[in-house]
Amino acid sequence: MKQYPLSPRQLEDWKYNYNLKPGVPPTIMRIETDLAGIDIGTLKSAFSSLIQKHESLRTTFRVIENQVIQQVEELSGKFELMYVDEYTPSSLHTLSEMVIREMKDLENGPLIRGIACKKEAGLYRLHIIVHHIISDQWSVNIIKNDLQQLYLKHANNQATHNEIPSEQLGAYILSKTAFYNEHHDNVISYWESKLETKSWHSDYDIIHRNLLSPPPAERTFPWKGLTGTDLIANPTGEAYTVAISEHLYEQLQQLRYNEKSSMLNILLTAINLLGAKLTNNRQILIQCHHACRQEAITANIIGNLLGKLLIFTDIHPDESISALMNQTGRRYQEATSHIIFSSEKLNPLELTTGNFLFFNFLPKEMQNNSLYNYKEPAFSSNVWAESPLVCQAFEYKNTVVLKWSYHLQFFNRTLIELLAAQFEEILEMMTGDSQTDIKSFLNNLD
Question: Which residue of 110, 291, 295, 339 is surrounded by the most CB atoms within 10 Å?
């Protein structure tokens, strides 16, 4: 049986899964569609070939000698597509909720389930549920496209054994981990020299005072005494999700065009400005997920292909917003040369969860629903709050959706709503005059 280390994102998913309260479902992705004129037997064969093709879909997780490893299962009957002869929305919902609860068992799996329900003569409902730890948003289209192609091959009695890709997720992680371990000392030395001033610490008590003045007497944030271990022992958080207006999104698209920049760069710049405004610091450290999908060899691999980026920005008050955007872009590219692929490699830097904002961005060209407008209402949910403040940005055709996850030790809902509103104000001001100097820009913020 093949065994591999975890990617940084898989390790976070593993922690999140095992810190969920009873009754709280794990993070999953759904693929749902109606299929007409298909043969169920052929669809079952195609689903089996899909599982055979991608090791990630046959992966489970165990703790061996205090280390979490992923191991690839042999193809067995537990990976078969389930078939329900009679369909009702309520029965499918009940079945899928039962399946999702069972997916909290990462040790035994399976962590992908397929359900086909007969709606009427010649029409079926296909429902695929995948645990996030073995897949990601980028992988959804791979699953859909491969299943379609494999169905056509089986329908035409064509061989599918040559569909096995040359590299799998586990092998990719193993090779990347080995590469970055080899360069580990240089990476750590680089970031130690960048971070030696320690002025990049985020004081969440200052954030609190800046957002609400005067602060409520009962709220104090002893952030300096709170370490990453303390947060892991107390994973209590919530999330606040809001979509920026379509009008502002159109302005941001124009800013991207004028500055020859990217949406990621614009949002990173805004995060830097927000951090500078809230903490009075001019050196900002941001931790960011980094996807490796741009590498040709990973284009058809299913799974979490992510490492850690530390993006360090030194903000100069006399420079313009445009100059800061350019610097932010350069810092991002520079950070990709010093990626920390293993989460454990952060330890020598002595970074705690109070040191940085965490940022994650999913661009619309890589997201499953990139062709659709965002119509979901804002929502909140319990989260695994390993960092005091996390911003996840999802780009749709008509907007950017921002999900602010926050630790209740540091923030409450009122504070987060004010913070999210100030971030949107920063974005709007950036679209006005990008030549404004940073000092004037920050002074003009409410």
Answer: 110
Q: How far apart are CA 351 and CA 386, in angstroms?
A: 13
Q: Enumerate the β-bridge partners of residue 237.
A: 383, 407
Per-residue burial over 144-183, b = 16 or more CB atoms within 10 Å of its CB, e = otherwise: bebbebbbebbeeeeebeebebeebbbebbeebbeebeee
Per-residue pLDDT, 149: 92
Do 168 and 56 contact (CB within 8 A), yes or no?
yes
**Contact between residue 263 and residue 365 where contact means Cβ atoms under 8 Å apart:** no
Which residues fall within 8 angstroms of residue 380, CB to CB, at 6 or more apart?
Answer: 238, 239, 240, 241, 413
- Strand, coil or helix: 164: coil
105-134 pLDDT, tens digit per residue, is: 999 989 999 999 988 888 899 999 999 999
- Single out the residue of 197, 230, 285 nearest to residue 410, CA to CA: 230
* 395: nearest Cα among 229, 249, 206: 249
Residues of the chain with pLDDT under 70: 213-226, 235, 362-372, 379
CB neighbour list of residue 186: distance below 8 Å, 6 or more residues apart: none
Which pair of structure tokens corresponds to residue 362? 């999913």
User: Number of H helices and number of E strands within the chain?
Assistant: 13, 14
What is the rounded CA–CA span in Å between residue 153 and residue 144? 14
pLDDT at position 394: 84
Give pLDDT, residue 370. 53
Q: What angle do CA 333, 327, 202 make, to 5 degrees?
A: 95
DSSP state of 386: S
Measure the CA–CA gap between 244 and 49, rounded to whole angstroms: 42
Q: Global pTM?
A: 0.84
Give the span between the Cα atoms of 384 and 49, in whole angstroms: 34
